[in-house]
């Protein structure tokens, strides 16, 4: 009985402290007036004016769309670089709906995200295709590091930037995540209530695939647990070597060569990332891969843990014949509400939704955003 009373007393005290914090943080409170000065955002480390606006994309330029390099920062003070696309027929003083676009995992804005962003700008939206932290033209060291936390934050940072532009309606902002960035976009939609509509294309759940490998539904939990531990041991040992050497071992990008025995989906990746249609020297998918030590975070910090709490609209798109289709189908099962939709594209494989303009359902994507960004 004494123990129970003590536990109850502690719970009440904890609740009281939490209430005081919440009340004290409110605008106009006496506590807020006595609070320490807020942390100041650091100056952005990249000047957009010094960046080239020369067309260097892996897709053709649309004459109906203007583009310019911009910079913004996330809450960790990392400066990100993006291409802002605007329709050239936009009227003076008009405020448009806006969409932040990123992905795939390992890609840069000159590849897939820029293709989506330019097409949606041609359809009347302001769009921002950006390089994630540590990649492409964006800042952050060590290069080509990834993080379930920081990469989710990058989407919210893009929303920060779009929300403060005078030609954008801040209540009409959506996000679009492709491949591995589909998982980050869903994660952000669960966190950031400013996101009013989310499109997910050919999604990967990076936490799941890094922790369990491909096609984990074919293995029992004991096998998965054993394989995860072996991976943890190897990567943890590599961290020691990285620190000793002062360099970070890379996981390796998409293979530069394939053989008859190479799985078809890996051949598809090769045909995009290593061939002219998609190769970019800034992309770690085309070059080095991510830092190997990045993988540990994903094993321990699963994405989508609050996906069932997303109240805003979500459209998920995947290819019927994609090896990755199960990621979207399983993530979709977590979503609640009548404003969620899963669209399966007949005969399409994973990478078809990277670049095939006759396969990517832009009419559907446009209609979805127009319905929910209004």
Radius of gyration: 22 Å
Q: What is the H/E string?
A: HHEEEHEHEHEHHHHEHEHH
Query: What is the β-strand count?
Result: 8
**Can you tell me the CATH class?**
Alpha Beta
Strand content: 15-25%
Largest sheet: 8 strands, mixed
- Which class best fits the helix and strand makeup? alpha/beta
Question: What is CATH's topology name?
Answer: Rossmann fold
Mean pLDDT: 92
Distance between the termini: 57 Å
* Count of separate structural domains: 1
CATH architecture: 3-Layer(aba) Sandwich
Approximately how much helix is present in the residues?
25-40%
Name the shape in a single word: globular
Uncertain runs are 19-24
Q: So, the CATH homologous superfamily?
A: Alpha/Beta hydrolase fold, catalytic domain
Notes on the protein architecture:
The chain has 374 residues and is α/β, with parallel strands linked by helices. Helices cover 38% and strands 16% of the residues. The protein contains twelve helices and eight strands. Strands 1-2-4-3-5-6-7-8 form an eight-stranded mixed beta sheet, sandwiched between helices. Helix 4 packs across helix 5 and helix 6 packs across helix 9. About 2% of the residues have low confidence.
What would the keywords be for this entry?
alpha/beta, globular, Rossmann fold, eight-stranded mixed sheet, 12 helices, 8 strands, Xaa-Pro-like_dom, 374 residues
């Amino acid at each position: 009985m004494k123990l129970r009373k003590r536990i109850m007393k502690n719970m009440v005290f904890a609740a009281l402290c939490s209430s005081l914090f919440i009340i004290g943080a409110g605008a106009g409170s006496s506590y807020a007036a006595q609070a320490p000065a807020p942390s100041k955002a650091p100056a952005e480390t990249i000047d957009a004016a010094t960046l080239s606006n020369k067309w260097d994309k892996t897709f053709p330029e649309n004459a109906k769309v203007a583009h310019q390099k911009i910079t913004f920062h996330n809450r960790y003070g990392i400066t990100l670089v993006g291409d802002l696309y605007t329709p050239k027929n936009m009227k003076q003083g008009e405020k448009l709906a806006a969409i932040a676009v990123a992905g795939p995992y390992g890609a840069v804005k000159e590849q897939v995200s820029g293709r989506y962003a330019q097409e949606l700008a041609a359809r009347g939206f302001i769009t921002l295709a950006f390089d994630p932290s540590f990649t492409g033209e964006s800042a952050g060291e060590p290069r080509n590091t990834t993080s379930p936390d920081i990469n989710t934050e990058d989407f919210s940072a893009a929303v920060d930037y779009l929300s403060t532009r005078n030609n954008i309606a801040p209540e009409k902002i959506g996000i679009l995540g492709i491949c591995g960035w589909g998982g980050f976009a869903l994660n952000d939609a669960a966190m950031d209530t400013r996101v009013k509509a989310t499109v997910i294309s050919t999604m990967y759940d990076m936490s799941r695939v890094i922790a369990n490998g491909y096609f984990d539904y074919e293995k029992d939990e004991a096998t998965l647990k054993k394989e995860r531990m072996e991976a943890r041991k190897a990567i943890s040992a590599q961290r020691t070597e990285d620190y000793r050497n002062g360099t970070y071992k890379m996981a390796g990008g998409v293979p530069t060569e394939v053989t008859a025995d190479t799985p078809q989906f890996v051949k598809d990746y090769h045909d995009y990332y290593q061939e002219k249609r998609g190769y970019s020297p800034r992309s770690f998918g085309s070059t080095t891969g991510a830092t190997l030590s990045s993988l540990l975070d994903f094993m321990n910090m699963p994405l989508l843990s609050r996906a069932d709490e997303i109240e805003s609209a979500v459209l998920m798109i995947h290819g019927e014949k994609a090896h990755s289709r199960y990621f979207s189908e399983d993530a979709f099962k977590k979503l609640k509400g009548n404003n969620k939709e899963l669209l399966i594209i007949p005969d399409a494989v994973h990478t078809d939704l990277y670049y095939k303009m006759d396969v990517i359902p832009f009419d559907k994507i446009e209609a979805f955003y127009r319905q929910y960004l209004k």
